[in-house]
Every structure is written in C-alpha cells, then in structure tokens.
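Example complex used in Figure S2.
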Amino acid sequence: MLFALFIYFCRQPYLSSMNTLSEENYLKAIFSLTQKSEEKISPTAIAETMGNNAASVIDMLRKLTDKQLIEYDKKQGVRFTPKGLKDSILIVRKHRLWEVFLVEKLGFHWDEIHDIAEELEHVSNISMADRLDKFLGFPEYDPHGDPIPKANGKLPKPFTISLTEVTIGNTCKVGAVKDTSSSFLQYLLKLGIGIGSTIKVLERIDFDKSLVIQINGQHTNTVSQLFSENILIA
Amino acid sequence: MLFALFIYFCRQPYLSSMNTLSEENYLKAIFSLTQKSEEKISPTAIAETMGNNAASVIDMLRKLTDKQLIEYDKKQGVRFTPKGLKDSILIVRKHRLWEVFLVEKLGFHWDEIHDIAEELEHVSNISMADRLDKFLGFPEYDPHGDPIPKANGKLPKPFTISLTEVTIGNTCKVGAVKDTSSSFLQYLLKLGIGIGSTIKVLERIDFDKSLVIQINGQHTNTVSQLFSENILIA
DNA sequence: AAAAATAATTAGTTATACCTAATTTTATAA
DNA sequence: TTATAAAATTAGGTATAACTAATTATTTTT
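Predicted assembly (468 residues):
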C-alpha cells in the first residue's frame, strides 16, 4: 500500500524523460538566447527567434515548466533548470557535430548545413553524440566557428572579437562567423573567406566605418560595417 | 484572369511535394508489404505492420490518395503510383544507407541500428542519400543483408534462399537475416554468426526440422526451424 | 499621474494524426 | 442460402502544437 503510494508520487517527473521535437526546438531557442545576451529571456524574444507567436510560446513555457526543464516568471524571465540546461546543451552538441560531419565527410558547403543539422540534432540515441564526436576526431568548433559542447557539457571558448576591433595594419585569422545566414555565407564563399582565412585590415573609412581588407594576402576588398561585425577573429 | 484560374487548378497536387513523417512511415510500411508477399495490401495488413489502428490507416490512405502517392480500392488493395513508389524507395534507400553508416563508421552493433535509422531516414535534403552513398563507397547491402536501392531506384538482388533449403553436408555463407528483431540479432551475435559467416549444415533432425550446424568451421550448434528460416544464404 | 504603447496572457480555433466504438460491407462456414 | 466472422469504414473524440483575437499587465512617454 505504502509502496503503491511511492510509485504514485514518483510517476510524473521521471516518466517524461524524453522531449518532443517541439520541446527540443524551444530549448534550443532559449539556449541560444542565453548565449546571445545577458538580458532576461521573455516570451516575445523566444517567439522572435522561433519565428512564431507569443501565445504559442506561453503554452510551451507552461509545458516545459511542468516537465521541470525551465522556470519562468514575468520578473525573472525564462531560466533553465539543471536538467533543462543539460538537455539543451546536448541538442547544440549534436547540431554542431552533425554540421562538422556534413562538411567534412559529405562535402556540403557551410551555407547548406544548418537546416539539415536541425533535423539530425533530434536523433535520440543516447550514445550518438559521443560516437559521432569520436568519429569526427573530437572537433572543438563547427564549420561556422561555433564551439561544440564537450561530452561533459563544457563549451570551448567562443570567439567574441569582431573584425571591427582589429587595429589598422594588423593581420588576423577568421575564427567564426556570427551571422550564419545563407546570404552571408555565400558572399563569404564568393570573396574566398572561410574559417582560418587570413585578413589584413588596410584601412577604415570614417564615413561609414567600412573596411578595406586584404584576403589571404591576395585580393583586396571593401566591406561594410555590418559585414565586419559578423566576422569573429581567432 | 485565365492565368489566375490556371494557378488555382495547379495548386493542389504540386504544392504538397514533401511528405510528413507520418506519410513517410506509411509509404515505408506499404513498400515493405509489397516486398514481403504478392498478396493485395489491405488496411488491416498496414495497421498490423505499423502497430496501429485500421481506422487510422483508412484516414491516411485517403490522404495519400489525395497526394497521388497511392491508389486504393477494396478489390485491388493499395498500390503505389509512380511518384509513391519513387518516394518509398528513397526512404528505404536512406534507411539502409544510414544503417551502414551507423555500423561501419560509428561502430554500432546490428541490433541497435534499426530505430536510429528510422529517425535518420526522414532527413529531407535532396542530395543526402547520394552523398552518403558515395561516402560509404556505394554499398549494395545493409548490415542485415537487405539490398540498398541504387540512386536510380533499382534494387540489387535480394537473398531469398534460407538455411532450411541447404543440402545436408553442404557449406554456405550467410547473406542476410530475414528477422531483424533485437532478440534474433543478439542471439546470432552470441553464436558468432554475422553476414558472411560460414555455416556447414551437418544434420537435420526429422522430428522438429532443427539443424545441427557448424559455425565458421569451429563450434557446432543445434538451431530451430524458425531460426533456420530466418537465415538467408548468399 | 494619466495616456499610450508594448508585453503577457487567456480564450477559442485549427490541422494532424491518432484513438474507440458503432456500423456497414465482404468473405467464410454451416 | 443464411448465419457468422472478419474486414472496411464512418462517426466522433483526444492530444499536440500551432494560430488569431481579445484581454489584462506592465512599461514608457507625455
């Protein structure tokens, strides 16, 4: 009898250990917001990153709270529970590992991989991430230069200094791109800029803060401020 | 005006070129039934393979018919349209290629891969199958010995002759397993039998049609009729 | 401090894909 | 041929996860 009660009270939280596709996408969006800024995470902000409706977000926040993946109140915004953080990091880990796979093993270009990895990241096998990690040789950064969470959840140091901050005359290497939209990535491809490319900053135009840069010691180009802000140096 | 009408009438069938997860699972189930026997494919049979309800199947058959993936009437059962067949074969192709990947590249055992491949097979990028195929060296058979459809939709010859048909005293090689359940695959693992293993049939027991076999020229074992029926020889 | 704007929330609706139960149709056996 | 069983189908319902529109809270501006 007592045992039955025990079972009864243990049911709820442990039963729902797996997350739905939709839940995973919310976790990912919330995680991405925690990385992007220090501000509190609001339903509206989540709706924006997910391209959906705040009302839908509210619904889901209730669900994620019930599953003890997040805590939410209007004052503090959304915050992860330890379990929620762990789950989110695993999704990001899988996403970025699959991106490496798609580029290194299947020969996709870096502007094609995001959407594919969005599908692959949800594959639920428990040892998948670790096996993939090993197979790929434990890469630290994905093809956009984003740090890949380790098996223990730790993230390698992300690149944070943008091309706008490089002193005139200095040379640097591209560590990551901030914007990962196809249009930006394809433009970079056209300019011959990729992760590891060498960029020498020749001149800064005061008028609009555009930069004249030399790419891989070869051709020079003028690039906009927006462009420079989205190049992070190694 | 006429043009607007043209657009209007063209909408429906072409709009819905991508299939949902659920639709893909039905296509796969129907395909698997076409491979297994010559009988007409009934809603009940589909419900059985999918482990769901015949009423649900009827619903989906209507949807797949609307999308021009199948044709269905009670007399003839379910049959693919060319488009439906093409889509199904692509799913099977992806499933089996991913299975090869999971075993060859990630080191999974053959009893672990089915469910993972069920998730991977739905990844929708148009060049995924072909890139994966190339990366894996264009394998002809998956880790269970099932033929992998080629890019043009053609299937390599499947293995059809079971161990029950091997003459006493003869030696054969395992080409495929019919049953791919974990319990069977794990038992085979325990016996040291895999694809390519050598089996010599030493004796047939009249009473229950069990076989005494020698595995890889080493140890001998007695196996049931059900067991032998599920080993297909190369 | 009141008005206006923005954000959060609720209420009610929709589509998908499943379900059960009841009914109709078809096939099989008496 | 009729009774019975099995299969197909319909009707109606559920959960998920989205939506719109309306309402309530909270900020911001005046």
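The CA atoms of residues 86 and 152 of chain A lie 9 Å apart. Residues 93-157 of chain A form a domain with the Arc Repressor Mutant, subunit A fold (CATH 1.10.10.10).
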